[in-house]
Specification:
Elements lengths: L2 H41 L3 H8 L2 H28 L2 H29 L3 H4 L4 H15 L2 H16 L4 H24 L3 H26 L14 H33 L3 H14 L4 H20 L2 H37 L3 H15 L2 H17 L2 H26 L4 H20 L5 H11 L1
Helix pairs in contact: 1-8, 1-12, 1-13, 2-6, 2-11, 3-4, 3-7, 3-10, 3-12, 4-7, 6-9, 7-8, 7-9, 8-9, 10-16, 11-13, 11-14, 12-13, 12-15, 13-14, 13-15, 13-18, 14-17, 15-17, 16-17
C-alpha cells in the first residue's frame, strides 16, 4: 500500500473517531457544565452545604461502578458482534441486558437505603452535616433502577455507533436537573434536599427515555417471551465485567479512604478539595469522549478481524487525546481562580482550590492518555490488566503515600494532590506501554481474538 493510501486510510479512521466522539464530548460537556451550576448553587448556601453534598460523592461512585462495569461488557460484546455482523448475538446480549438492569438496580437501591445513615459517619463528616449528607445520599440513590437503565442501555446504543441518542437523552435530563435545582433549592427553599430531589428526578427521566430509545433500536430490540439464559454469553459478560467491577471497587474504595483523609482537615479544606475535583472534570471530557469512540471502534475491529484498523485507532486516539489535553491543561492553569470563585463564596477555599488546579493542570496529558488507553483495553475485553494497574496504583501509590503525608508527616492539601498526580501518571505509563509499538499492538490484538 502506498504512502498516499495510508494517509487516506488514516484520515478515514480519524474522521470516524471524530464523528463518533463529538456527540459524547458534547454530552459530557453539557453534563459537566450543569454539574458546575449544580455545585455552584449548593456552594452559595455555604461551606457546610457544599461539604454535605460532597462527602458522599465517592460512595456514589462506588455504587455507580456496578452499572459502569456492566456497561463496559455490554459495549465490548455488542460492538464486536456488530463488527462480525452477528445479529443473533446482538439480540441475545440485548435480551440479557434487559433482564439484568432492573435486578441490579433494585439490589443497589436496597443496599444504598440501608447504609445511608452510616455513610457520612464512616466518611468522617462533622456532626453538623451528617443528617443532611445522609438524606442527600438516600434521595439520589433511590432511583437506582433508572440510573442503571441510563448507563447500561446508553452503552448498548453506543456500541451500535448511535452516539447521538444518548447525547440527546442526557442533554434533556441535565437541562431538567438545572431548572429543578433553581426552583427546589431557592424558590422552594429546600436547600440540599432540593438539590437531591432535582438530581433524582433527572435520573428517572434519563433512565426512562434511554430504555425507550433502546426498545426503539432495530438492532437491539428483542422479545423476552422466549428468553432463556445463555451460559456462554453470561460467562463472557462476567469475564469482562468482573475485573472492571473490581477495578471500580478498588478505585472507589480508594477514593473513599482518600476523601476521608482530606475530610479530617476540616470543612474549608474539604470543600476546596472537592470543588477543585469537580472544577477539573470539564477539562478532560474530550478524553472520555474519545475513549468511548475508541472502545466501540476497537470492538468492531476485533469482530471484523481487522488488525490494521485496530492499530490505527490506537495510534490516532492517543495522539488526539494528548494534543487536546495539552490545550485544556493550559486553559485550566489560567482559569483556576475564576473557576473556584464561581463555585463558592469563601476566599480561603477559592485560593486553596485554585492552587490545586494549577498543580494538576500541568499533568492533564498524562490523565488523558490513561483515559483513552484504558478504553482501548475495555474495547478488546482485556479488563484484567486494567484491574491490576488500577488497584496497584490506587492503593500502592495514592492511598499509601497520602496516609504517610497526612497522618505521619502532617502535610497539607498540596502534598495530597501530589500523591493523586503520581497515581495518574503511573497509570498512564502502565496503560500506554503494552500498546506503545506496532508489534505490541498486533500481539495484543491477536491474543484478544
Amino acid at each position: 500500500m502506498t504512502i498516499s493510501d495510508n494517509r487516506a486510510y488514516s484520515k478515514s479512521i480519524l474522521k470516524t473517531l471524530i464523528m463518533l466522539s463529538l456527540p459524547t464530548v458534547a454530552e459530557q460537556l453539557l453534563s459537566t457544565l450543569l454539574q458546575y451550576v449544580d455545585t455552584a448553587m449548593v456552594g452559595r448556601l455555604g461551606e457546610d452545604a457544599a461539604a454535605a453534598v460532597s462527602v458522599t460523592t465517592t460512595v456514589s461512585w462506588l455504587i455507580n461502578s456496578v452499572p459502569s462495569a456492566l456497561s463496559v461488557a455490554v459495549l465490548a460484546m455488542i460492538s464486536k458482534a456488530v463488527g462480525s455482523g452477528d445479529e443473533e448475538k446482538i439480540k441475545s446480549v440485548s435480551a440479557h441486558t434487559a433482564m439484568t438492569v432492573p435486578i441490579v438496580g433494585l439490589i443497589l437501591c436496597v443496599i444504598a437505603a440501608v447504609l445511608s445513615p452510616f455513610i457520612p459517619v464512616w466518611m468522617g463528616a462533622e456532626k453538623s452535616i451528617q443528617g443532611q449528607a445522609s438524606l442527600y445520599f438516600l434521595i439520589i440513590t433511590l432511583p437506582m433502577v433508572f440510573r442503571c437503565s441510563g448507563v447500561i442501555f446508553g452503552a448498548a446504543l453506543r456500541a451500535t455507533s448511535d452516539m447521538r441518542t444518548p447525547m440527546l437523552v442526557n442533554f434533556g435530563a441535565n437541562i431538567l436537573n438545572a431548572v429543578l435545582n433553581y426552583f427546589l433549592i431557592y424558590r422552594a427553599g429546600l436547600g440540599v434536599t432540593g438539590a437531591a430531589a432535582a438530581t433524582a428526578i433527572s435520573y428517572i427521566v434519563s433512565g426512562t427515555f434511554m430504555f425507550l430509545a433502546y426498545r426503539k433500536s432495530k438492532l437491539l430490540r428483542t422479545s423476552l417471551r422466549n428468553f432463556s439464559i445463555d451460559k456462554g454469553l453470561v460467562k463472557e459478560g462476567v469475564t469482562i465485567s468482573l475485573p472492571v467491577l473490581g477495578s471500580g471497587a478498588a478505585s472507589c474504595l480508594g477514593y473513599v479512604v482518600f476523601a476521608s483523609l482530606v475530610t479530617g482537615m476540616g470543612n474549608t479544606v474539604f470543600a476546596a478539595h472537592s470543588i477543585a475535583v469537580t472544577a477539573e472534570t470539564i477539562f478532560y471530557i474530550s478524553g472520555y469522549g474519545l475513549r468511548t469512540a475508541a472502545s466501540a471502534m476497537v470492538g468492531m475491529s476485533l469482530g471484523e478481524g481487522d488488525s490494521r484498523k485496530f492499530e490505527t485507532v490506537c495510534r490516532l486516539s492517543a495522539a488526539m487525546t494528548v494534543l487536546m489535553m495539552i490545550v485544556s491543561g493550559a486553559v485550566l492553569y489560567f482559569a483556576a481562580y475564576p473557576l473556584m470563585d464561581f463555585f463558592i463564596e469563601s476566599d480561603k477555599a477559592v485560593s486553596l482550590g485554585a492552587e490545586m488546579l494549577r498543580l494538576v493542570a500541568l499533568t492533564e496529558p498524562f490523565y488523558g492518555l490513561m483515559i483513552v488507553t484504558e478504553g482501548i483495553f475495555y474495547g478488546l475485553g482485556k479488563t484484567k490488566y486494567a484491574f491490576i494497574i488500577e488497584t496497584l496504583s490506587m492503593w500502592g501509590i495514592r492511598i499509601l503515600l497520602t496516609f504517610i503525608c497526612v497522618n505521619i508527616w502532617g502535610c497539607g492539601l498540596r502534598e495530597v494532590w501530589y500523591c493523586m498526580i503520581a497515581d495518574n501518571i503511573f497509570k498512564a505509563v502502565m496503560f500506554v506501554l503494552p500498546v506503545s509499538t506496532k508489534t505490541l499492538r498486533k500481539k495484543i490484538f491477536t491474543a484478544a481474538r
